[in-house]
Amino acid sequence: MSNESLANLLKEERRFAPPAGLAAEANVTAEAYERAKADRLGFWAEQARRLSWETEPTETLDWSNPPFAKWFADGRLNVAYNCVDRHVENGLGDRVAIHFEGEPGDTRSITYAELQREVSKAANALIELGVQAGDRVAIYLPMIPEAVVSMLACARIGAPHSLVFGGFSADALATRIKDADARVVITADGGYRRGKPSALKPAVDEALTRPGTENVRSVLVVRRTGQEDIAWSEGRDVWWHDLVEAQSDQHTPQAFDAEHPLFILYTSGTTGKPKGILHTTGGYLTQISYTHHAVFDLKPETDVFWCTADVGWVTGHSYIVYGPLSNGATEVLYEGTPDSPHQGRWWEIVQKYGVTILYTAPTAIRAAMKWGDDIPAKFDLSSLRILGSVGEPINPEAWVWYRKHIGADRTPVVDTWWQTETGGIMISPLPGVTETKPGSAQVPLPGIAATVVDDDAREVANGSGGYLVLTEPWPSMLRTIWGDDQRYLDTYWSRFEHKYFAGDGAKKDDDGDIWLLGRVDDVMLVSGHNISTTEVESALVSHPKVAEAAVVGATDPQTTQAICAFVILRGDADAHEEGLVEELRAHVGKQLGPIAKPKRILPVAELPKTRSGKIMRRLLRDVAENRTLGDVTTLTDSSVMTLIQSQLPTASSED
Ligand code: WT7
After folding, report:
1. In testing the pocket of ligand 1, which one of 504, 611, 634 has its CB within 8 Å of the most ligand atoms?
2. Which residue range forms the structural domain that includes residue 643?
3. Domain at 427, CATH number
4. Which residues contact residue 231 at a Cβ distance below 8 angstroms, ignoring those fewer than 6 apart?
5. Which of 212, 563, 610, 638 has the most CB atoms in a 10 Å sphere around its CB?
6. Residue of 392, 395, 402, 538 best suited for mutating to test ligand 1, as the one with most atoms within 8 Å of CB
């Protein structure tokens, strides 16, 4: 971003008050903000009491060596005990923890008592494989219950896990195994994707031929798809059903220090080698448990929670595994994609299990918008009471569509901002408290300090934009980048003194509420104005013919950068319609002002996305500037780029 703050273009006036019933019964009320403001550390010490500690902490925060934080340092606890055993001890053994829905339609409901037995057996199996506290275990699994069981088994014996998303290649897996120096890999023969089995084990075999992975002693393999021609390395590979099933279902969890490592999770980052984000035990679980309770207003006796993320992302770690289970929730775990075997699959699952709280990503909401309103309308979604969004800025139009077509214009939508690095939700409305604004994450949660600053680290006035920063340490913050303290300092703590730099552009509206505007690397400079890609995308999506948009700044001799937009049209719109591009440009001009009118608009069938659903603007910039494409290995589908390039010449609007 240049030395001028972000232009504040979008005006969104719609407001939605919390439903009266929900507000009256809400887990967390406005008073929490006051309490946390008066005594932030006291507030977090109180939240730590949500957990069962073997040794209660007497210290809250040790910030004597910033930015290396220690939270609850003299406390000791076991994460798996907190997520499983204590619920059984409290008489909740028969409550369903997980309703598993496999992509082919196979199902399994697992109670807390069963989960305790499964986790104990898996913990005993890891011990038999020689895994000790502190050893790293790589997990490369589809979205099946064994993924959750494996994570909890690692936590139970104090072996930090490192999940690698099942869609990643052998290369990506090898890099992560090597960086974490993993000793065991847990995988499966394969998983189901769009109705077909898709193999996983060959990628592990290949990864383990790479230098630096020699310390992997064992590969534990779940049989999921039953593929027959599976390669086997005797002495190294062992079937889950042979080893785990043979174990005792009794295991006594041992407590670990609050700062004992819980997991490493790699963020790809746009350049360079992936960063191993390190999270630890007591502070992490405190904030994850609290935020899950507060933001989703979870009532564990009656709610059915569903977070649609993959367990391989931080959203899955925090809001499939550690948040819901520490709170004794009943949740859905779904293996597959939203459109398999039909585009109503998710809504069918909501109806089937009576899901009350749904947590998903804007990319999925926009896909549902594109497929059409009539699809969710075929299902009974009346059980839903809260909807959540995470992963990207949500365009106001997608937010309103989500509330209306999924939430029957009744459910609050909570737009939750956070990162792999923050571990848990940081900025979000509270469903029983906040009057919501479509497109805004709005307010830091109680106990969280966030604001927006300019280039000189000065807090911007309401109505202005700049950089999002976190000004106080928080319990679930990353502790470092695995093996690279210097990179931790450089990446997050050197841009502004004593402040965590999130890398996101943001603005404060006239009420001081925060609106996220995308990664600062994506901000465009047009004729001396910093303009957010997110705002132009939102303006495009607010046109009735547009379902999704990706905007980039392409080098331009006159204006420094020119706005270039790629749009996916809604189901019934025609890409060749005369005057469409002009109509869209005029619409953006009307919404945001003439400066924000895209110079070029290109209707496309698909957009390049990372496997977690984020648009890869870098590749679109390459296209817009007629460059050869950069690294496409993290794309879900690289043919998308070929398709876009082939469409290029005809659809320009510049002349
Ligand atoms: C980046 C972090 C948080 C878990 C999943 C992604 C973007 C995330 C929002 C939101 C606007 C958002 C930010 C952030 N982001 N949530 N509600 N509104 N932007 O984790 O892969 O570490 O990505 O995702 O740019 O920095 P991640």
Report:
1. 504
2. 526-651
3. 3.40.50.12780
4. 201, 202, 205
5. 563
6. 392
